[in-house]
Structure formats: structure tokens, C-alpha cells
Amino acid sequence: MSAPSDPAAAAGQAPAPAAASAASSSSGLTFKLHPLVIVNVSDHHTRVKAQAACSGDSSSSSGTAAAQPPRVFGCVIGVQRGRTVEIFNSFELVLDPVSGTLDRAFLEKKQELYKKVFPDFYVLGWYSTGSDVQDTDMQIHKALMDVNESPVYLLLNPAINLSQKDLPVTIYESELHVIDGSPQLIFVRSNYTIETVEAERISVDHVAHLKPSDGGSAATQLAAHLTGIHSAIKMLNSRVRVIHQYLVAMQKGDIPVDNSLLRQVSSLVRRLPAMESQKFQDDFLMIIQEQRAYVCSTFHNIRNTMTLSS
User: I want to staple 15 with a disulfide (CB 3.0 to 4.6 A). Which of 135, 187, 266, 268 is the partner?
Assistant: First the structure.
């Protein structure tokens, strides 16, 4: 979920004191970060950025400078064994863009769903995007302390820096420090290492070496992919039309009734969701939005690639 860069300011609240510190963590915890988390956060940011670009907001249409892409927020999950914290996966969070508060019902539902699939995983903290810690981040951090009393904060910097060799990912812990005579909770940096399993290494290596086999451009590869999907949909439509015409002819009595065939058609139809249900409509619209975002983000990536290579 995206939100303005300063939700508290948008709500007319006074921002909290600066919550970032250049100090290193003294907790002694060892953090291991899996590539899937970085891919998820990057994908979340890319989708939100592409949706914002496709929506054509009023600020860009009025000729003003393009606004910064909205920040995204989510939870990181994994396991903690002794002093070792291993972050395996993540999921998105819904944040109120006005008040900057979390949707607790959505968070609890996502926790319940992930517990069914990964019973050993727990919410370890949360993630966001940006070049640095914002003053309002501590508000979200404290809101998650009832889920994990000492959550971690993973910050991904989406800005492209060709001279930077390290990953643009920083992990923060929160510590209580006495500042100007009063105790305050601040963010402190923590070191981490990238941990992978065999399946992740194969997937990352495949993506890193992915390129058109015929030496064509990324646009050519995208066009071929969309053409393949279009051909598959056309074939499916033609075969459904044949079945429909056959059933109409059978209903009119032009051809004899074949009970065996009718049972097969009935079994096939039962596998499809009820198109009149609200759930189907919501899921269908969600898929359409995701596909639009994917196409937009792909074209943005193509444009960025052409810009960097020129």
C-alpha cells in the first residue's frame, strides 16, 4: 500500500522528533536477509510507481515538476533462532493515507493466511521505501510493537545510483536512548548478510541472465509474450464457441442427445467460478489492475534501459 511521504503532516499533526541515528545497533542480533524480500519490496514499489504514472495525476498534467513516487509499506516475516534473525518473505500493508495508521483488520487477516501456509514464520517487523528514515516512521514502528515487541525496519532506497556497489537496503532496530535528558526511541543501523537457498539461487541466476534468445530488444520480447497470450485466448474462445453451438443444436433437436458429453461439459463448467458473484468480480478487477500495472512497469523499465544504454 502506498501513502504520502509524510502522513502525519497531511493529517495536520505535529511530526515526531527525528528518529534516525547513525549509531550501530548494540543488540548483538545477526540478521540474514533472503533475496525474495528484496524482490517483493522492489516489485511493490514498481507497481505503485507505474500505477501513479498511468493515472496521470493533476500535478503532472498542470505542467509542474513530477512528484516523488509514493512510499510503500509492508511487513517482513521469518524466524528467530536465538540471536539469529532470518527474514524469508514479506507482504504488503494497508496504510491510511490521511492519518498514517495501519489497517489492523487487514494485518490480522494476512497474518492468519500466512500462518496457515508458513506456521513457523512470524512478523519480524516492517519495510518501506525512501532515501532515508522519515520522522513519521516511528509512529508505524510503535504501532507494530503489539505484534512484535522489538520489530525490525527494512528500508529500500529505490533511487538509481550507478556508483553504488552495495545493495540499497538498510535494516534498522529501535533502541531507547537518553537525548536531552529524556528517553527516546530511535532507529539504529544493523548489519546483515544475504542468505539464499538453492531454489532462490537458481531463480535469481535465471532472472539475472534473462535476455531474448534471438538477440532482440526487450520490447520485442514483450510483444512476443503478449502475442502468445492473445493467441491462447483466441483459441480458448473458438473452442468454447464450438461447444456452445453443439449444445444449442442438441437443445433444438438437430443432433441426438449425448449424455456422456453433457456430463463432461457440466464437469468443465463447474470448475469455473460463478461470474455473477461479487468475489469473482473483485478478483477479476484485481487481475486487470495487476496486468495493467505490469504492462506499465514493463514499458517504464524498457524506457529506463534505453536511457541508460544511450
Answer: 135
Per residue, the 3-state secondary structure of the chain, as one string, reads: CEECCCHHHHCCCCCCCCCEEEEECCCCCEEEECHHHHHHHHHHHHHHHHHHHHHCCHHHHCCCCCCCCCEEEEEEEEEEECCEEEEEEEEECCECCCCCCECHHHHHHHHHHHHHHCCCCEEEEEEEECCCCCCCHHHHHHHCCCCCCCCEEEEECCCCCCCCCCCCEEEEEEEEEEECCEEEEEEEEECEEECCCHHHHHHHHHHHCCCCCCCCCHHHHHHHHHHHHHHHHHHHHHHHHHHHHHHHHHHHCCCCCCHHHHHHHHHHHHCCCCCCCHHHHHHHHHHHHHHHHHHHHHHHHHHHHHHHHC
The DSSP bridge pattern shows strands 2-3 and 71-81 to be antiparallel
Report strand pairing: 84-92 vs 192-194: unpaired
**Integer Cα distance of 281 and 275 in angstroms:** 7
Report field, pTM of the whole predicted structure over 0.85: no
Which are the contacts of 265, defined by CB distance < 8 A and separation ≥ 6?
A: 243, 247
283 Cβ contact list (under 8 Å, min separation 6): 273
- Per-residue pLDDT tens listing for the chain (310 residues): 555 444 444 444 444 444 555 567 777 889 999 988 998 899 899 888 888 777 665 444 444 445 567 889 999 999 999 999 999 999 999 887 677 788 888 898 888 888 888 889 999 999 999 888 888 888 889 989 988 889 999 999 988 787 888 889 999 998 888 788 888 888 999 999 998 877 777 776 766 665 555 555 556 666 777 788 888 889 988 988 988 898 999 889 898 988 888 888 888 877 766 556 677 777 777 776 666 666 555 555 555 554 554 5
